[in-house]
Each structure stands twice: as C-alpha cells, then as structure tokens.
Amino acid sequence: MPMRNTLPLKTFITLTVLIGLVEYGLMYFLGATPVDQHAFAVGTLDSLLLILILFPFLYLLVYKPFNKNIQNLTLAKESAEESHDRLLAVLDSIDAIVYVADMQTHELLFVNKFAREIFGDIRGEICWQTLQAGQSGPCSFCTNDKLVDAAGLPLTCRWEFRNTIDGRWYDIRDRAVRWIDGNLVRLEVATDITERRKSEEKIKQQNIFLQNVIESLPYPFYVVDTATYEIVLANSMALLQGISKGRKCYAATHNQDEPCDAEQHQCPLNIVKRLREPVIEEHVHKDLDGNDEYVEMHGYPIADEKGRVAQMIEYQINITERKKNEETLRRMSVTDVMTGLYNRRGFLMLAEKQIKIADRLPGELFVLYADCDKLKWLNDTLGHKFGDELIMETADLLRTTFRQADIIGRLGGDEFVVLMVDESGKESIGSVQERLASAIVRRNELPDRRYVLSLSFGIVQYDKNNPCSMEQLLSKADHLMYKVKKKQRENEP
Questions:
Q1: Which of 46, 196, 383, 397 is most buried as measured by Cβ atoms within 10 A of its Cβ?
Q2: What pLDDT sits at residue 169?
Q3: Is there a single domain that holds both residue 351 and residue 450?
Q4: DSSP states of 20-86 as a string?
Q5: Which pLDDT belongs to residue 460?
Q6: Same domain (yes/no): 399, 256
Q7: Cβ atoms within 10 A of the Cβ of 269, count?
Q8: Is 434 contained in some domain?
Q9: Same-domain check for residues 364 and 413
C-alpha cells in the first residue's frame, strides 16, 4: 500500500526531470538564432512534445481511474434499478394488498398491483379517503400509534378487519419501516381471508348445530379419551347425572376407582378399542340417590389421523322401565294370573333345569300332582266366585306348605304341581303325603268355612338311575293322582 501511494509522485518527478532535460537539449541544439527567428514554431513544437510526453501520464493517472469510477457508478445504478424492478415484480406478484403510507400525512407512497386492481392507482392519495368508505378523518382503528415504541423503534401489529369498500375480510400486518427519505412510514400487507372466514363461520354454525343436537338428546351423551378414560365432552343430561368433563368414566358412571372388568357388564370402551366397531352393552348404574338403574350403553369409535381409536362416543339410554316391563311380561308368560304361581310353561322351563342339576348333585327329587275335589259342585251350588276362591286357596295352601325353593305351578283349571328338592335325603313320598294332608286338615279347621277343602294328589320320586323328562314324571304323578281320585269316588256313599 505505501509503494502504491508513492508511485504516482515518483513517476511525476521522473517525467518532470525528463521533460526538463529534453527541453534543455532541444534549446541547446537549436541555439538562440532559430528560436528567435521561429519562436512560434518552436513553442508549438515544444507544446506538442510536452503533450506527447504527458499523455501516458494523464491517461494512467487521470482518465483511466475516472472512467473506472464512471463504469462502477453505472453498474451500481443498473444493479439498483434491477433490484428495484425485481422488488416491484415481487410485490406486484403477491396476492395481497401491499401499500406504504406516510404516518404523518397519510399519503400513499406505494401501492402494489393487487391493490391497484381493487382501488385503482391511488398513489399520492390519502389512505383513509381511498381505502375505506365514509371516513371524514383518519380511521379510528388506524395502527400508526401502535407501530413505534417509546424509544422510537419500529413495531409490528397484526389484526383482522372487514374492508368497508369491497366488504371482504383481511388478515393485516402493519409495520413501521424507514422510507428512502429516512422517515418512518407504515408498510401494510393485507391478505384476503374472506373464504377462510366463511369456512370458519360455517364450521362455527355446524358446531352450534351439533351442540344443539347433542343438548337436545334426552339421554346422557359424552366423549371419552380411550387412553386415559377421561371424559372430554358431556351434554347437559350427562351433567345432571354427575358425568362431567375431566372425570374418569368409570368413576362417573359406576363410582369406581378403576375401569370396569365385570364379565356380565363389560366396559364398552375396552370392547370398542378391541373390535374397532360400535358396541351396545347393558349395565347397572347408580342414580344420584344410590338406586340401581338399568342403562343401555352405546359406544362408537372415533379414529385419529393415524387410524387409531383415540376417543369413543358414548351415550346411555335408561331402560329401567323397559326392564321392568320385560320382567312383567316374562312373569306373565310364565306365571298364572289368578294364583301367582308358575303356569305350565314356566313350571316346565324351571323343572327341566332342576332335573339336570339333580343328576349332578346328591339328594332326592319329588313331583306332586294334585287337583281340587268337587270344584264343579262348588261352582254349581255356591257359584263361580267360590270356585275361584277354592283355586286361590289351594295355591296358597301349597305355597305355605312347601319351601320357597320348591317349584309350584298351576297347570290349568284345578290342576297343580309341585317339584320338591330334598338335598338332605330325609324326605320320602310318605313324609310329603303326610305334610300335605296335615296342612289340609288345619286349613279345614279354620272357622266360618263355607266349603271343605279337599285335594287328590299323586307323588313320584325321580330315579337318577333311570333318567326321564319332566313330562314323563308329570304323567306318572298324574296317573297316581287319578287312581287316588277314582278310589275316593268309589268310597263315596
């Protein structure tokens, strides 16, 4: 660097000395007389010689550096213009409103193509007069006062607004930036989000509709996280039963500290996770008063983006009344309406099961077949009211004579049957006959009776070594009862 700085000076001194020597030699060669006679020509020659000698020096030290600077300035200008054009091309290609406004005068200093297509070429106009409708002054929502902090440093502000001219929604980003004159200006980029807002509004309305549907359901409806058993959504009906968001489903529905695992009441959530399909289970829950209630549990899987069952929709339908009605109908289908005893269907259904059990367990099994004596006479002489009374009294007699575990039925009319199970092995046909006969005597000793209670009956014992059906046992007992009845008739006067 020091050598480069001294080189022009050395060159200049060298050329000066060289020019002096040339001048001196020329004058010496020509002498005084030619110079005096041809002074103009000599001066001209001397100047040309001087120019010839100085031209390389002037070219190297003056023209060449100046020309290089001019070229650099030209390239810099072209580069700046190219960058400017590129920036404008970028800004004009953005599908968003981009403009720059003076923060003091509100004058629009720049507007991109997207904005010009909406509002026209509004450069030089006032922003609040051209970008909004019905403004008599700067917009009340103007962000100029939010774009510079207390220290004067630029800030950014983001907000959403519906333009009053085109009626469309925009996501707006405002920022204070330095303009070419050094002043702070507002750069605004407004992206059209009208379609997004419409979609959001549509989703909002759909959510409101869905929420209304869920709230209108007359039964508890809730959503459970399959990993944590936590309730993440619950309608009002669920809240009324203590099934609320944040609680564990098993704590809310069964008042338990861990998930359900009973075989008769399997957890719907575990079944849904395993089968990945809707399930329906019947459970017994506790109501707020601690009473049992039957509920039908419906579970529906909700898959995440990876196809895993992440949540489960669950709703309960209280079927307590239905269960009661079903039980009533079941009892009606197997129960005699008049006496409350099992009818033929109910008796046979239970008796067949009891025979299968008796084949595997110790003890004896007896079948008693009985009917009321003189029912026709009672109906003909005292009326059917007393005939019905005889049937109901017979049912009551059998119910109080035999154990609760024994199966008692009315096969129809005045025919009754009893299935007795003696696990102790102390009973016999004779003891059963004696017990029933004694009960009949005690019943007839009651005061104010209008008729005598009389039964004909036959008793058979089940033989485990020769198994048979209940129908066969009934046939045998009926045959014995018929023989007894026939004998009684023969003995009548």
A1: 397
A2: 94
A3: yes
A4: HHHHHHHHHHH-HHHHHHTHHHHHHHHHHHHHHHHHHHHIIIIIHHHHHHHHHHHHHHHHHHHHHHH
A5: 93
A6: no
A7: 24
A8: yes
A9: yes
Residue 208 lies in a domain: no
With beta carbons less than 8 A apart as the criterion, state whether 186 and 101 touch. Answer: yes
Q: Is residue 89 part of a domain?
A: no
Spatial distance between the Cα atoms of 343 and 395, rounded to a whole number of angstroms: 12
Whether residue 484 sits in one domain with residue 349:
yes
Per-residue tokens: 427: 């009973």
pLDDT of residue 108: 94
In order, the DSSP letters of 282-322 are: EEEEE-TTS-EEEEEEEEEEEE-TTS-EEEEEEEEEE-HHH
Contact 144, 125 (CB under 8 A): no
Which residue, among 139, 183, 191, has the nearest Cα to 164 in the 3D structure?
139
Per-residue model confidence (pLDDT) at position 30: 58
> Which of residues 22, 40, 73 is at a domain's end?
73
pLDDT tens-digit series, residues 186-214: 999 999 999 999 999 999 999 999 899 98
Tell me which of 323, 347, 379 is where a domain ends: 323
pLDDT tens sequence across 265-308: 788 888 898 889 998 888 887 777 777 888 888 999 999 988 89
Same domain assignment for residues 474 and 348: yes
In tens, the pLDDT along 468-491 reads 888 999 999 999 999 988 887 776
Q: Which of 404, 407, 405, 370 is nearest to 390 (CA)?
A: 370
190 plus 233 within the same structural domain: no
Here the CATH number for the domain that contains residue 282 is: 3.30.450.20
Window from 358-372, 407-421, 428-442, 473-487 with minimum mean pLDDT: 358-372
User: What domain count does the chain have?
Assistant: 4
Collapsing DSSP to helix, strand or coil, 152 comes out as coil
Residue 124 domain-assigned?
A: yes
Token reading at 300: 């529906």
Buried b (16+ CB within 10 A) or exposed e, 391-417: bebbbebbeebbeeebbbbbbeebbbb
Residues 365 and 403 in one domain: yes
Domain that holds residue 437: 335-491
79: pLDDT confidence band, cut at 50, 70 and 90?
confident
Global pTM?
A: 0.48
Compute CA 414 distance to the chain's CA centroid, rounded to the nearest angstrom. Answer: 63
Answer yes or no: are the C-beta atoms of 367 and 418 closer than 8 Å. Answer: yes
**Same domain as 135, residue 47:** no
Taking each continuous run of H as one helix and of E as one strand, the counts in the chain are 16, 14
CATH number (domain holding residue 367)? 3.30.70.270
